[in-house]
């Protein structure tokens, strides 16, 4: 997480180190946002061209996701959780918007595009996943409210074991059989346990964790890319036929999330920084979790929307963040 952005500016001598830290962090974030989509594209191409190399790794996907979520837990600090108590309305609005807009949009797109059952479930499952792990980076680049972004991402992840299976059963049950109980256990094992373990490690091994924090974004990027390669390899034979419609579904899904997330913040009378944060918290999904669940409970084809989403939401997120960063902030919340 981008912790420096949560620290208020100070006057005098302390302002210079803070500004220097923010400048360095901004450079690192921009590099990550540029390199990450390229890594995912390369991974997808390799998975498609040499599926025999990545297919045998299919059983390792849950463990790879566990590594990503452990890294996320390592970045969380007590102030991140305290911000939830300080701003319950903004955080609650973000959570509700996330778990209403994206699942609903996924179901609507699957129906309107008349997707085959496996792809329909895959799109809906992406929508029912918690916030994406890179959403706070995009909020930072967009000059949004990073503290709110971190709070919404954290809470949406912690409640995912209950919310994601229930929403998937409700919205996708008409397409395929949904084992909600099995999903619950899988999310607890691959998301909740690693995140909690990371938080505890940060609390009790702070000096050691501080040394590895700079490497965490890159470690997560590499692992997510490997998951994409494995998922693409599993459905390589069907990508040519299904790729176009899946890409259209993903672009529409992500676009609805970004736009309606910002609108939710506006309707909730949040300030412009908070609206920008909600745009990314709603529009960016934990596609690694969705891919893991789709592979475990359905088929590699059902995981294809997750792999495409993993690429596209980072590309679109970077574009939207750059656009918003060039627009002046409105300091006060909307009125009327």
Can you describe this structure?
With 336 residues, this protein is mainly alpha-helical. It contains 16 helices and no strands. The protein has helices at 15-49, 51-54, 61-75, 78-86, 88-112, 117-128, 135-141, 146-158, 160-172, 180-204, 206-212, 216-234, 236-267, 272-283, 287-297, 300-325. Helix 6 (117-128) packs across helix 16 and helix 7 (135-141) packs antiparallel against helix 8. The radius of gyration is 19 Å and the shape is globular. The two termini are 34 Å apart. The model is unreliable at 1-16 (pLDDT under 50).
Question: Helical proportion?
Answer: over 70%
Q: How would you characterize the largest beta sheet?
A: none
Q: Could you give the distance between the termini?
A: 34 Å
* Computed structural class: mainly alpha
Share of β-strand residues: under 5%
| Average predicted confidence as pLDDT | 83
Let me know the number of strands: 0
Helical region count?
16
Report the principal-axis shape: globular
Key descriptive features of the protein:
336 residues, mainly alpha, 16 helices, 0% strand, globular, disordered N terminus
Brief account:
By secondary structure, the chain is mainly α.
Please render the helix and strand layout as text:
Elements (H helix, E strand, L loop, with lengths): L14 H35 L1 H4 L6 H15 L2 H9 L1 H25 L4 H12 L6 H7 L4 H13 L1 H13 L7 H25 L1 H7 L3 H19 L1 H32 L4 H12 L3 H11 L2 H26 L11
Helix pairs in contact: 1-7, 1-12, 1-16, 3-10, 3-12, 4-8, 5-6, 5-8, 5-9, 5-13, 5-14, 6-9, 6-15, 6-16, 7-8, 7-14, 7-16, 8-14, 9-10, 10-11, 12-15, 12-16, 13-14, 13-16, 15-16
């Amino acid at each position: 997480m981008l912790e420096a952005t949560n620290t208020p500016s100070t006057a005098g001598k302390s302002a210079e180190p803070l500004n220097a830290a923010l400048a360095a962090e901004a450079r690192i974030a921009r590099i990550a946002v540029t390199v990450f989509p390229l890594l995912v594209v390369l991974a997808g191409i390799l998975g498609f061209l040499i599926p025999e190399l990545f297919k045998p790794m299919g059983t390792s996907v849950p463990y790879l996701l566990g590594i990503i979520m452990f890294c996320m837990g390592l970045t969380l600090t007590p102030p991140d959780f305290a911000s939830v108590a300080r701003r319950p309305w903004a955080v609650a609005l973000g959570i509700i918007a996330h778990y209403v807009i994206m699942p609903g949009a996924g179901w609507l797109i699957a129906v309107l595009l008349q997707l085959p059952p496996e792809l329909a479930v895959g799109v809906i499952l992406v929508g029912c996943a918690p916030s994406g792990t890179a959403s706070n980076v995009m909020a930072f680049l967009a000059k949004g409210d990073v503290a709110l972004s971190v709070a919404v991402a954290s809470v949406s992840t912690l409640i995912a074991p209950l919310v994601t299976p229930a929403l998937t059963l409700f919205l996708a049950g008409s397409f395929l059989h949904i084992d909600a109980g099995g999903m619950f256990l899988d999310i607890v094992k691959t998301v909740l346990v690693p995140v909690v373990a990371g938080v505890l490690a940060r609390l009790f091994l702070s000096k050691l964790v501080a040394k590895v924090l700079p490497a965490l974004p890159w470690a997560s990027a590499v692992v997510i890319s490997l998951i994409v390669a494995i998922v693409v390899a599993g459905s390589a034979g069907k990508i040519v036929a299904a790729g176009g419609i899946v890409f259209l579904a993903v672009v529409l899904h992500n676009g609805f999330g970004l736009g309606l997330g910002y609108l939710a913040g506006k309707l909730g009378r949040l300030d412009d920084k908070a609206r920008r944060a909600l745009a990314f918290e709603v529009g960016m999904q934990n596609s690694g979790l969705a891919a893991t669940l789709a592979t475990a409970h359905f088929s590699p084809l059902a995981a294809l929307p997750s792999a495409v989403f993993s690429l596209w939401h980072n590309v679109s997120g970077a574009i939207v963040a750059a656009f918003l960063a060039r627009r002046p902030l409105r300091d006060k919340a909307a009125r009327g």
